[in-house]
Model the fold of this input.
Amino acid sequence: MYYIAASLLGLSGLFYSASHHELGSFGADVCLYGSVFCDSPGVVFTGAALSAAWGMFVSIK
Done:
């Protein structure tokens, strides 16, 4: 679950950078295909946080 949280955290950073036009033409392509996530990268970050919390919850012994 932590791998999923880490990948979602990376994706939220990618969408955040793409939405602020910091990636050049690659960012334009990212926002072309993932326009919903470029408009609100917080949605992906929230998914990462929930995934990490769930991973911590199920790993409690």
